[in-house]
Amino acid sequence: MVSTDTQATWLLVEAMGDRCTVIYEYDSPRAFQTLERARIVHARRGLADSIKELVLKMKSGDPSPKLDIYGDLRLAAEPVMGPERDPHLYAVKVWIGPIDAQVPTESRIVGTMMWDPTDKGDPITYHDPVTDGVILGYDPPATQRISAQVFRHYQYYPKEHLLGPWVEAIKDGRKPAADTFDAKIDLTRTDNQLLRVFIAMRAVKAGTSHAIRGVIHDISDVDPPTEWSGFDKQTARSAISATVGDDRTTGWGHVNFATGIVLEWYTTPPGDLRVWEFQNARWADEREYFSYLERAKNGERVSFSTVVRFNDEIPRSVKVAISPANPGDVGNGFLIVKEEDNPALEFHPMW
User: Fold this and answer.
1) How many alpha carbons lie under 13 Å from residue 162 in its C-beta half-sphere?
2) Dist CA 342 CA 66 (whole Å)
């Protein structure tokens, strides 16, 4: 939906919850603003109602592209559906132009994701084909990823430290203080192409708890990414690589203190622990793990021995060290792991 006609514009309207709001307008983020506050809609008071009607038609069970006329304007609406795990209407791409203008055939690149912390006790991010195949560049695209597989693509994410506390409330079954979270992220596809995306997420009711729905919009054409030269994620990766050198007995990960999730592995965990790159670990005693995270959050470097297991249910003894990089409630650190031959370690009774 890119148009060379200067009188035409477009909106990205989210529909992940009970309301529909604007999350992007042509070249600017409008994170979760009412339709009435969009620039073109503000000048045409009844236009908001026409757009809402198109969105409601799609939400009511007819998620097919729609055309409409409002005065001297033509509207073209295209649905953005959630991933296979949650195939509901997440957003609508709305092109608005002169009534005699041709609707562009090229569409905005918009993908979706869903994160359910209650899913099998092992949080997974579910992707639609656009998110995994077009934005991240995987061929063939997968329907689900763990956090470490996604965050390895991020190059610049200034609001990342705020994401953990927001997700923590949802992970604990509580409603977060704010229902929504949005951010610009520069990421590298699998083919090393640099993109800038705008992600808008909403906490939605899922049974007795909350899940996260998200819309990922490639905005590289209107807000190009920057080759960052300061201290960014790539610098951190290079520094860790230089520190570890040829040592393949340890794995270095980036852990979020609020959630305890390893967001990225800077170096591959050794031996049988390498599966950690593609699956989340389940700890023998999760309360013990979070107690060590709390100490690291307060600035202490801690180490302990424990047992972890993955989808194959095989227990693996592991030596863990957590070193704070940025202490505090919104901080993070390094999770350093190595294999340990310790048969005395056993499962927690709750396993």
Assistant:
1) 10
2) 63
Taking the mean position of all CA atoms in its chain, how far away is CA 262?
Answer: 14
**Backbone phi, psi, residue 237, to 5°:** -60, -40
Confidence band for 29, pLDDT divided at 50, 70 and 90: very high
Q: How many helices (H) and strands (E) does the chain have?
A: 7, 19
Geometric angle at alpha carbon 134, from 279 and 332, rounded to 5°: 45
The Cα-based distances of 1 to 22, 105, 190, 283 in angstroms read 16, 7, 25, 47
Residue 274's Cβ-side half-sphere holds a number of Cα atoms within 13 Å equal to 6
Looking up tokens 């409630």, which residue turns up?
329
CA nearest 24: which of 198, 274, 205? 198
- Give me the pLDDT at residue 73, please: 93
Classify the phi-psi angles of 324: left when phi > 0, otherwise alpha if psi is within -120 to 50, otherwise beta: beta
Amino acid at 39: R
Q: Give 3-20 pLDDT, tens digit per residue.
A: 434 478 999 999 999 889
The beta strands (E) that lie in the chain are given as 9-14, 21-25, 28-33, 66-70, 73-81, 89-98, 110-115, 125-127, 144-145, 154-156, 180-188, 194-206, 209-218, 251-256, 262-265, 282-283, 302-309, 316-326, 332-339
Residues making up the chain, counted from first to last: 351
